[in-house]
Specification:
The longest helix is centred in the middle third of the chain and has 32 residues. The protein has 18 helices and twelve strands. The strands form four sheets. Strands 1-2-8-5-3 form a five-stranded mixed β-sheet, sandwiched between helices. The termini are far apart. The chain has about 475 residues and is an alpha+beta fold.
Length: about 475
């Protein structure tokens, strides 16, 4: 192993620098990639003292900007790079809660756990995402999207971000849990948005400390969490009372809770955490991706026209079905390009368990490595004119020329998004269903912002106010060219 220490990077950042990074983290990561290349070491100045108190030693921070390094962290040596933020607590620290607001919501769900616990949870819920189950969800997804498009009114101005949030939550409720959430979707989406907003403003461990006290911000969090819990308990209790086995995700979770092979596989708390996790993760990323898709289509009428031509040709006016997806190739390319430009999860981090080598540099254990989908997806080495919306980047020949992890909107490896196949199917069916009947135009004067709001997810700063325009499909044998 090389003994070279610390690749180049911005050194000794001070409090002002840290605050500036919080204001524009994407801009910071883009500058680091531009100025320092494929691997950079960041020293956080006064934060090193703070992190030493928190973790028992001073960690190092590395920003990785190359597909090979992404693969090394997520696939090749994934067991050495874990999701948990820190080592086992020292005895004196156990009494201090260190969870963020979001961490308190997700609890010990599949997103936040590591090691054997994570692998067991993933193995339990994996059957719900197998191909045969995914195919059965298609009709439900289309039905939810058709109900949405039928209630829309020509000329109405809507916040499409909210609309997509409610739609995708209804889809998750109906497909995963067999529960109609239409009537409460608005409140649940608002509750999730509140928790994410608080998570952006105050992160762990300060958030964990504040949760111990009856402060206004804590009461606001508890109200939002209580709203989510009310739905979680309703969904779970109704299914248990009915005794119905629908072979959906909720049935799988309840079976796991009751035990398999004579042992208790999942506690009631774990069941609650899984439902909350899957409600949030199952709808929020897809909602953001779809919101950005409508924005991009509104700004590129030539792309929108090609999309409409394909939909009219393939579907001939009827709602889309799962078997249509293989023929909706341009629709898939539009969605893939939207995920490239605005990946819902824009950055990932992993903690290094043991000393290792990355890019010829020694990386000590307990360091943190950061991988940014946003940065990689905008790297001109892999995407020419990277800020341009061009679905033809996803033609098979163009895809074959790029390294595997130049594009990773769903992560990768054993911890890759378990619902990736579901999101692709959901996104394409929703786009096809809504674009059949509607065009969306950005409300004049509405400021989307040059940079999206970079936080837990990538979403527009000010929502997405758009005007609906009804279109008339024109079935025919046209080609998109």
């Amino acid at each position: 192993m090389t003994t070279a220490l610390h690749p180049p990077g911005p050194k000794h950042l001070h409090w002002g620098d840290v605050l500036a990074i919080r204001q524009d983290p994407i801009g910071f990561l883009m500058r680091v990639a531009r100025d320092y290349g494929d691997i950079a070491h960041v020293k956080l100045g006064p934060w090193h003292f703070y992190m030493t108190l928190l973790y028992g030693q001073s960690p190092h921070f590395y920003i990785l900007n190359h597909p090979d390094f992404v693969k090394e962290v997520l696939v090749t040596h994934h067991r050495n790079f874990v999701r948990s933020p820190g080592p086992v607590q020292r005895q004196s620290q156990k009494r201090i809660p260190r969870k963020s607001w979001l961490g308190s919501l997700l609890g010990e769900g599949v997103v936040t756990t590591d090691g054997d616990v994570y692998r067991r949870q993933r193995r339990l819920i994996q059957p719900a995402f197998d191909p045969q189950h995914l195919a059965s969800y298609g009709a439900v997804i289309t039905d939810c999207a058709v109900r949405t498009r039928e209630r829309w009114k020509d000329g109405a101005t809507l916040d499409i971000a909210h609309e997509m949030g409610e739609l995708t939550l209804a889809i998750v409720g109906n497909t995963f849990f067999g529960a109609d959430m239409d009537s409460e979707a608005r409140e649940i989406v608002k509750a999730f948005a509140t928790i994410l907003e608080l998570n952006d403003r105050i992160t762990a461990p300060l958030a964990g400390v504040l949760q111990r006290f009856p402060l206004p911000i804590t009461r606001r969090f508890q109200r939002a969490l209580g709203r989510v819990n009310a739905t979680t308990f309703r969904v779970s209790n109704q299914r248990q009372v009915s005794g119905k086995d629908s072979s959906d995700l909720l049935s799988i979770l309840l079976h796991a809770r009751d035990g398999e092979g004579g042992e208790c596989a999942m506690t009631d708390v774990q069941l609650r955490d899984q439902i909350r996790t899957l409600l949030l993760a199952g709808h929020f990323g897809a909602a953001n991706a779809l919101t950005w898709t409508w924005y991009l289509l509104s700004q590129h009428p030539d792309v929108e026209a090609k999309l409409h031509t394909e939909l009219d040709c393939v579907l001939a006016g009827r709602p889309p079905r799962v078997e249509d997806l293989e023929h909706l190739q341009y629709t898939e390319m539009v969605f893939a390009e939207a995920l490239r430009l605005y990946p819902p999860i824009w950055v990932m981090y992993r903690r290094v368990l043991s000393d290792c080598e990355i890019g010829g540099y020694f990386v000590p254990g307990n360091s943190f490595v950061f991988l940014s989908q946003y940065v990689m997806h905008h790297d001109p080495r892999y995407f020419s004119d990277p800020f341009r919306f061009d679905p033809l980047r996803w033609l098979p020949a163009a895809k074959a020329e790029r390294p595997e992890f130049a594009y990773f909107p769903f992560g990768g490896g054993p911890r890759g998004c378990i619902g990736e196949g579901f999101v692709w199917m959901e996104g394409m069916l929703v786009i096809a269903s809504l674009a059949q009947r509607w065009q969306m135009r950005l409300l004049p004067g509405h400021a989307v912002g040059i940079q999206p709001q970079a936080s837990t997810t990538l979403r527009p700063k000010n929502g997405m106010r758009m005007i609906l325009e009804r279109r008339k499909p024109m079935p025919g044998p046209k080609s998109i060219g």
